[in-house]
Amino acid sequence: MLDIELLRTFVAIAESGSFTRAAEEVHKTQSAVSMQMKKLEEQIGRPLFERDGRRIRLSRDGLRLLDYAQRLVRLNLEASAAFTDPQLQGSVILGLPDDYDRLLPGVLSAFARTHPHIELAVHCTSSLTLKGCLERGEVDIAIVTLCDMTAPAQVVRREKLHWVSGQGHGAYLGTPLPIAVGAPSCAWRRSATEALDLAGIPYRIAYTSESANALSGAVIAGLAVSILPESAIRPEMRILDERDGFPPLPPCEIGMLRARHATSAIHDALADHIVSRIGNLPAARLEAAE
Question: Does 153 lie in the same domain as 268?
Answer without folding.
Answer: yes
